[in-house]
Amino acid sequence: MPLPPVAFFSIYEIAVRWGCHPADVAGWAAAGHLHVVAGIPPVLCGDETVAGMVQVPMAELMGMFRRMGPSDEQARLRRVMPLGSKTWLKITDPAEGVPVRSSDLLLDSGTLQAFEEERDLLRRPASTIGASPRYDWDAMYAWLTWFLFEKGVPDTQTALVTLVQDWFVQNSKSGEVPDESTIRKRLTSLWRKLRGEETV
Description:
Blueprint: E1 8-10, H1 11-18, H2 22-30, E2 36-45, E3 48-55, E4 74-77, E5 79-82, E6 89-90, E7 98-101, E8 106-108, H3 109-118, H4 137-151, H5 157-171, H6 180-194
Helix pairs in contact: 1-2, 1-4, 5-6
């Protein structure tokens, strides 16, 4: 039996998938085009206990997705909407709300698919035919997008290459890691764009 479809995607994964800035994805969610959810521990909303996956008010969390200047490392959820509900509930305990990081915020695949179909966005279909790629470049680029957005651009291209190589060492399922020259070739165009240089 095949695995079920992926239920949730991070904002950073979708930014890579659509070739846009994470702030764009967050903005579309804040405008109501996409539903953003997060998993939370049990909290009290008045007399009601809420836990698990809940919809979050994205407009109140935009400080974690600034286009210019440093983004907040975390924010606090003060309102949530249980899935299937249409009513926002104020978190009363803990009174300060629930801390969340940008990587905790997920897009549900249902509204995501509807958004893509309505706008005829190109999607890369999942394929089960043929051999798997030797290295998981897509996953690396998703992580790298998050890293650059959260931590900033390294000072040198060598530092960038080292970061990526370290990621492969820690995440390679087969134990295989691309060599430095292969990574450098893959990142040269990105590095030039990050530095504001012209690309050939």
